[in-house]
Specification:
alpha/beta, six-stranded mixed beta sheet
Length: 247
C-alpha cells in the first residue's frame, strides 16, 4: 500500500525514528483509509516488535478481531489490576478462546492484598491516592511490558469520542522509542455496532447494564448510577488512568 509521500524510517538496530513532517502527512492520509487499511500499513511498514493492548472493555472485541484477522499471533497485552469485574475475566476467557489470542498479562509486582496492607484502599484517598494506585497497578506494569517486549509499535483501540481527553487522538504518534497507532480513532459507536454485528462479536457482558467504560470494580459506575459519562470512572475526579494520557 502506498501512502502518499509519508515514510516510516527505521534506525540502526531496527528501532524506529520519525520525521515529524512525514508523521503529519501520514496522519492526514490515514483519514482516507479504512481501519483495516491503516492496520495493514502499520503492520507492513512500522518497526517491530508490535503489540496490541486491550482492557477487554465494553467494545474491545472490535480491535481484537481487526488486528488478529491480519496478524493472528499479535501479542495482546492486558494489564490486570486484580480488581476487574468477574464479567471482565469471563469476557477475557471468551474472547481468548474464540479469537485464539496470544495474551500477555502484566500486573503490579505487589499483590492487591499486599498493597492494601501497606497503603489502604488508595482509590478512596482522593486524587493523589487514585494517581498512586493507577501508577502502581496500570502505568508501571505497562511501562515494564513495553521494555520487556522491546516494543517498537503499540496498537490501541482508543477512539476520540470516548472522552473529552481523547478528542484529539491522532492515528499515529511517536515518542522517540515507539509508534502508537490508533486505527479506530475516528470511529463512532455506530461503526462499532455495525462491526460487532457483521462479525457476530459480543459486547462486554456489562454493556446491557449501562456500563459504557469498564475498569476496576471499585472505580467504575454504570450510567444508571451517575449523571454523565465522565462520572462513570474514578468518581468523576478524572477520566484517564494514565495509560493513554501520554504515549
Amino acid at each position: 500500500m502506498t501512502v502518499g509521500a509519508a515514510q516510516i524510517r527505521i534506525s540502526e538496530g531496527g528501532r524506529p525514528k520519525a520525521d515529524l513532517t512525514d508523521l503529519a502527512r501520514l496522519n492526514q492520509v490515514f483519514t482516507e483509509l479504512t481501519a483495516e487499511q491503516r492496520i495493514r500499513y502499520a503492520l507492513d511498514h512500522f518497526a517491530g516488535p508490535q503489540i496490541l493492548t486491550s482492557s477487554f472493555g465494553a467494545q474491545s472485541a472490535v480491535s481484537l478481531h481487526l488486528l488478529t484477522q491480519q496478524q493472528p499471533d499479535m501479542p495482546v497485552v492486558l494489564i490486570d489490576t486484580g480488581y476487574l469485574f468477574d464479567e471482565t475475566y469471563q469476557f477475557i476467557e471468551t474472547l481468548q478462546s474464540r479469537l485464539g489470542l496470544n495474551l500477555v498479562i502484566y500486573r503490579s509486582e505487589k499483590s492487591p492484598a499486599w498493597q492494601e496492607a501497606l497503603y489502604g484502599q488508595r482509590w478512596l484517598q482522593g486524587l493523589d491516592g487514585l494517581d498512586a494506585y493507577n501508577y502502581d497497578n496500570k502505568v508501571e506494569p505497562m511501562q515494564r511490558a513495553l521494555q520487556d517486549l522491546n516494543v517498537a509499535t503499540w496498537f490501541s483501540g482508543v477512539r476520540r469520542i470516548q472522552s473529552s481527553s481523547r478528542v484529539n487522538t491522532p492515528f499515529v504518534q511517536f515518542n522517540g522509542d515507539y509508534y502508537k497507532v490508533a486505527p479506530l480513532a475516528d470511529w463512532h459507536d455506530k461503526h462499532v455496532f455495525d462491526y460487532l454485528k457483521a462479525h457476530d462479536l459480543p459486547y462486554h457482558p456489562l454493556w446491557e447494564k449501562g456500563y459504557v467504560s469498564i475498569g476496576d470494580v471499585h472505580t467504575t459506575r454504570s450510567l444508571n448510577q451517575v449523571e454523565s459519562v465522565e462520572q462513570t470512572r474514578f468518581f468523576g475526579l478524572k477520566r484517564e488512568c494514565g495509560l493513554h494520557d501520554t504515549l
